[in-house]
């Protein structure tokens, strides 16, 4: 099979990928070839690794059988019609780093670490007065939006903080809340909302839901920026109807310079780095090789998704 690799791996990692693949397969690395030849090679491939331009798949390669995304999200591909193609994402692969990022951001917010870091840069000692403004994650009443692998990892981490956790999902067996109506009933007694929803849940967390939260609540987002009414969130933060926000994602990325979130002292921005780790690309290769071998043996694939359903 010809494997088209859209991901811009380093030269050493390209060699690693070639070494780990079963014999008899050719690899075409997109950025090794002139632009004029890339599309032709793409059309001749049976396997794709990475996230090619969506327009390339509008007329998908006729022999395409297996596509491994290099991301958890796949919003830009949900309108594609690829019924005979096995498509997998990397949701499980990114779940732990995403969970660690959002829990770290929440703890940084509660414990004042961003303010203290800024004071360090200014070489200014404040100390005492800050102590009495600090909060605890321990014992918080938490709602997690989404019961997928990232939400499950977040829940597991929060178990060490004796939090009361309710998960929101339409039909997932581990969910406690299954509808917007049920969620609205719980939000007034919620300290912390952690959004782990995929882009397919566009606009799920509405202005009404934001308004239902107490003014001591914190909103955190490690899902997708389009799943929350960002304008309503910003207004609630400006008017102190929310204590703060921890945002790995925003509706528009990169975040425009004139967006008010940049200047809010009660907002922590982690700039969509949530899934990152030092060995990220090595892990993508390992995951792809194992899943590709499963594909060749007609075994169940890890993280197989349905583009039309958005999950």
Write a short abstract of this structure.
This protein is an alpha/beta fold and 311 residues long. The chain is 32% helix and 14% strand.
Describe this structure as you would to a colleague.
The protein contains 10 helices and 11 strands. It is of the alpha/beta class. The chain has 2 domains: 111 residues, Rossmann fold (3-Layer(aba) Sandwich), CATH 3.40.50.720; 176 residues, NAD(P)-binding Rossmann-like Domain (Rossmann fold), CATH 3.40.50.720. A 6-stranded parallel beta sheet has the order 7-6-8-9-10-11, covered by helices on one side. The relative contact order is 0.14.
Name the poorly predicted regions.
Answer: none
Which overall shape is indicated by the principal axes computed on the Cα atoms?
globular
The CATH superfamily of the largest domain is known as: NAD(P)-binding Rossmann-like Domain
The termini sit apart by 27 Å
Order of adjacent strands in the largest pleated sheet: 7-6-8-9-10-11
Total DSSP helices: 10
User: How many individual β-strands?
Assistant: 11
- Tell me the structural class: alpha/beta
CATH class of the largest domain, anyone? Alpha Beta
Taking the sheet with the most strands, its summary is: 6 strands, parallel
List the helices and strands in order: EHEHEEEHHHEHEHEHEHEEH
Mean model confidence by pLDDT: 96
Number of domains: 2
**Helical coverage, percent range:** 25-40%
Q: Remind me, CATH topology of the largest domain?
A: Rossmann fold
Oligomer: single chain
Q: Give the second-level CATH assignment, the architecture of the largest domain.
A: 3-Layer(aba) Sandwich
Beta-strand fraction estimate: 5-15%
Over the alpha carbons, how many angstroms does the gyration radius reach? 22 Å
